[in-house]
Amino acid sequence: MKLISKLLFSSVLCLGIANVGNAQKLxxxxxxxxxxxxxxxxxxxxxxxxxxxxxxxxxxxxxFIRTLIRTLKHPNSFYYSFDSVNIAKLYSPDxxxxxxxxxxxxxxxxxxxxxxIQMNMPDGSLKLFPLFDNSMFTKNPIDSIRNRNNWIGAIxxxxxxxxxxxxxxxxxxxxxxFSVASNKKWMEVLSFDAKGEPVFGGPFISFKEDSIKxxxxxxxxxxxxxxxxxxxxxxxxxxLIIVDHLISESDEPEKKSTxxxxxxxxxxxxxxxxxxxxxxxxxxxxxxxxxxREALLYDDEGNADEGKLEESSRKNSGKKTTxxxxxATPPKKKVGx
Length: 337
Fold this sequence. Notes:
Layout lengths: L1 H14 L12 H23 L3 H19 L15 E4 L5 E9 L5 E9 L8 E5 L22 E10 L2 E10 L5 E11 L5 E3 L4 E2 L12 E7 L6 E4 L4 E9 L10 E13 L2 E5 L30 H9 L20
Helix pairs in contact: 2-3
């Protein structure tokens, strides 16, 4: 409980107003009204996230949703950041929408993600898409295109915008408090259809340049030991999504709860409308702890740092950063969703 709570709180503080520069659309009276509503949301969300009583968490979650919707109906609420509310808020790089995500914990075994997409409407009105987590009813989530009614839930901490053939695609990276023994991190592409409805996933995750080929996937995830710290984030200078390569620390590859980073790194590069997998992005394997852990914007403990990947790598290794390569010897254990 403490783990995800710290992640949520850190996300709120650091992502709340990342890409919105139009707060001037809110008048002084607007700010006062929304600030008062924020106080209510802050208190409700505190109980929703931190309460030790499951019944109180459920009641608070229901009340929070109703209060949030009522608050967002205030004109131009999109430009109010709600910094103190204990949920994650992530703006798209072009500020065309923002995503609220949080989780509802029934007990140690049942955890559901909740979410909503608020669109940035020119007239300041509310256009909101609630997201309903369907992951616990899904056997193979990596192979399906989904909508807001059967979303694979995650607490999002990064959004990357790419364009292909005139269409915008938003890649979301998020955290999932998956089970008692393991966590997950997810990556998938969000787009909007002709009707303006959100679409999650599609033929965007490619392994065509791997030595060992795999089918195209709609989304990608890693699952790993609860206590492990893993890198899964975007580096803008390298223009890569960088992911820790994982292996079973007990040589039990069938048990994802035993997976930990081995000091090697995989990546995804945007090419012709797909994220193409790269087996290995550094020519020499670094020892555990030598890789720039500070390149993480968010780790599993919610610690934030915006250090540059290349600069940190050079500092830690004492050498110039090795040029990324497109192909290399495939790792012994493949990361999969």
